[in-house]
Amino acid sequence: MLSRTAEYALRAIVWLADHPETPVTGQALAAATQVPPDYLAKVMQSLVRAGLVEAQRGKNGGFSLVSTPEEVTILEVINAVEPVRRIRTCPLGLAGHESLCPLHRSLDNIAGQLERAYGAIRLTDLRSGGVKPLCPVLEGPHA
Questions:
Q1: Which residues contact 37 (CB under 8 A, 6 or more apart)?
Q2: Staple partner for 17: which of 42, 61, 93, 123, CB 3.0–4.6 Å?
Q3: Which pTM does this prediction carry?
């Protein structure tokens, strides 16, 4: 349901929210989130442009979250890299389709429900329940 880009952005920003103590380099973040470094660099540029993440250059540089995890929603992260697409006009461009047909109205309603659901989840919500994203891989018979 989510694109790979949105998934990678969420992995990165959740990790940053969980490690606010110091900025983290792109290489370290890529390793921690299991995202290819070159791909992550492009994702992080989008998050910086959206004002969700800041990048510091230099010896003690790296990426860090701009706001608190309580202030950032999943929707903001997704919209920074690949916005939820709403259908405002007939995608087919047909004459007589000034309003959405039942099919496209239904699809747009679903997109609206996704937006509302994503907008209701804050980064801090992803830390509840004791299970964190990117838990270490279990080894042994229970893996």
A1: 26, 27, 30
A2: 123
A3: 0.82
